Amino acid sequence: MRKALRVAFSVVTILLVAAVAMQLYLAGVGVFSDPEDELFAIHGWNGRIVLPALILLTVILAAVTKAGKSTIWLSVLLVGLLIMQTLIFIVTGLIFNIGPDHANPPLGATLLVSLHPLNGLLILWFSFVVAKRAYKRAFRSETTDAEAEATAAEPGTAAPQVPEPSPGDAVGAPSR
């Protein structure tokens, strides 16, 4: 069961990386298409439905699979970065008193809202980092997992001991 959850965590994070990369592509499609085609709506749909669902699953699976504190926190960071994507637009609108269809936004609004794609790149980067960790955890060799669990389960098992130097060994001499 634990192995299946680790594989699921890896699959979800790989899908997340793919969805974020697709999001960047869809932004380009929306920007460079005829506005009447409304292709930019696909970018919005992906960002409001697909990405939040995958990020939520990432956080849940990171916690359930006990992926480690840093991996779990990186997954939570993805939630914060995704929230920032929307907050960038809201804050820009509030500061400059403009809406999404404003024809000539002031330079300050343009500079502030331009943080949106940079934040998207951060989401892509951290998604990749979490996916790489999830993949390593899910697909490392079975013998390594079995040995680690067996060693941890043996009562009184200590860390491997480094052999003591014999009295004839020179102190500070390089080992062979």
Describe the 3D structure:
The protein has about 180 residues and is mainly alpha-helical. About 70% of the residues lie in helices and about 0% in strands. The protein contains six helices and no strands. It has helices spanning about 1-30, 40-65, 70-95, 105-115, 115-140, 140-155.
The tally of beta strands, per DSSP, is: 0
Any idea what the radius of gyration is?
A: 24 Å
Mean pLDDT: 87
Structural class: mainly alpha
- The total number of structural domains is 1
Proportion of residues in β-strands:
under 5%
SSE string, helices as H and strands as E: HHHHHH
End-to-end CA span: 44 Å
* Helical run tally: 6
| Apparent shape | elongated
Low-confidence stretches: none
Largest sheet, if any? none
Helix content: over 70%
Brief digest:
The chain has 176 residues and is an all-alpha fold.
How would you describe this structure in keywords?
single chain; 72% helix; 176 residues; mainly alpha
Reconstruct the topology from this structure:
Layout: H1 2-31, H2 40-64, H3 69-96, H4 107-113, H5 115-139, H6 142-153
Helix pairs in contact: 1-2, 1-5, 2-3, 3-4, 3-5
